[in-house]
Amino acid sequence: xxxxxxxNSAEGGPAFQVAVSLAACIYFLNEKTKNLGRAFIxxxxxxxxxxxxxxxxxxxxxxxxxHPTWTLELLTSLVAYLFLFVACRYxxxxxxxxxxxxxxxxx
Length: 107
Hints:
Layout: H1 2-7, H2 15-33, H3 36-57, H4 72-89, H5 95-99
Helix pairs in contact: 2-3, 2-4, 3-4
InterPro entries: CPP1-like
Transmembrane segments: 12-29, 36-58, 70-88
Keywords: Membrane, Transmembrane, Transmembrane helix
């Protein structure tokens, strides 16, 4: 999806690609969790978190490192794709098992 978004970046943004990615993420989460409600919440939550993080951190990237035709919307969608991938890859994992104890606290 990222490659498709980059190739069509000048045609009005990656909204369709993001929608297809969200639908695919929900489908794969439903296959793994066998719970459509949970799959929808995880998929939509990961999209929102990715879009929020992308909106915050992408503008901080120096313009020298970014291709001149890549827009803020395109780069934000690439971050959202990453978040959707992680959500589909680790749906049943507790974040504490991925990150470890925070601040030395035991769970």
